Amino acid sequence: MSNLKANYRKVFKDNLTKISRKNNTLWLDYRIQKALKAELKRLLSKHTGKRPINLLFYYPLPIEFDSRKLLGFYKKQKGVQIFLPFMQGISFKIVKYRLPIQKRAFGVYEPSNSSFKISKLDYAIVPVIGIDKTFKRIGFGKGMYDRFFSTLKTKPQTIFICRALNLAQCAITQPYDLQADRFISPFASLKFKDIHNGNMGSYKLYSFSGNRWRR
User: Fold this and answer.
1) DSSP-derived secondary structure letter, 61
2) Residues 6 or more apart from 122 whose CB is under 8 A from it?
3) 8 Å CB contact between 169 and 70
4) Cα separations in angstroms, 145 against 37, 82, 87, 158
5) Buried b / exposed e across 63-100, counting CB within 10 Å, b at 16+?
6) Which DSSP symbol is given to 212?
7) What is the pLDDT of residue 174?
8) 19-26: long-range contacts at Cβ-Cβ below 8 A with a sequence spacing of 24 or more?
9) For an engineered disulfide with 85, which of 89, 92, 109, 184 has Cβ 3.0 to 4.6 Å away?
10) Three-state DSSP class for 24?
11) How far apart are CA 207 and CA 191, in angstroms?
12) What share of residues in the chain are helix, strand, coil (percent, to 5)?
């Protein structure tokens, strides 16, 4: 299982690297931004409580959807608090998004450390390399998101973001791997129930047979 997951991870990462070297990333990111903004507008409109809505975002790596415009947009919204991961050992905690942003381990940019704590995380926007048929995350293999989410008493509604429609046709993840409610790419916006109910329509999934990849 681990070798198969490693094979998928390599192909998915290579695919994202190729995409990110081309000049169409602005178009891809525009489509993601439009879909994500619409989804967050729908989710945030449901909140009528007095406390702020706590939203976990991320600061992008070169192969990831460029989230910086949305970070700036939601930072200005009243009633919304934006958080980013702050790495600590083999996991991370979340800190409030504020400038300046500094480059740290693995080329990840982070705000400065903070002791500010929240009682509940409402929504999480999580970058992925791809997902498998169980709607679970295929990431860079560090396991930081899995460890962080395992510490939460209440799981936030989670949206996976990817510049490519990197979908594995089999289950290659483990029980502890992070699972999302929605997956957004430039080409499709899928809900967990779409895959769970086998309703994938005409979407092509990656498969691995012997030493050959098929799609």
Assistant:
1) P
2) 47, 53, 54, 55, 156, 157
3) no
4) 22, 17, 10, 12
5) bbbbbeebbeebbeeeebbbbbbbbeeebbebbbbeee
6) E
7) 86
8) 19/63, 19/163, 19/164, 20/62, 20/63, 20/163, 25/66, 25/163
9) 92
10) coil
11) 21
12) 30, 25, 45
Residue 147's identity, in one-letter code, is R
pLDDT in tens, 80-139: 999 999 888 788 889 999 888 888 777 787 888 877 778 889 999 999 999 988 899 999
- The reported pTM is 0.87
Pull the structure tokens for residue 194.
């779409």
Cβ 39 vs Cβ 182: under 8 Å? yes
- H helices of the chain, where? 2-21, 25-44, 68-75, 144-150, 192-196
- Measured at the alpha carbon of residue 175, what is the angle toward residues 89 and 132, in degrees to the nearest 5? 100
Contact residues for 210 (Cβ-Cβ < 8 A; gap 6+): none
Q: Are 25 and 66 in contact (CB under 8 A)?
A: yes
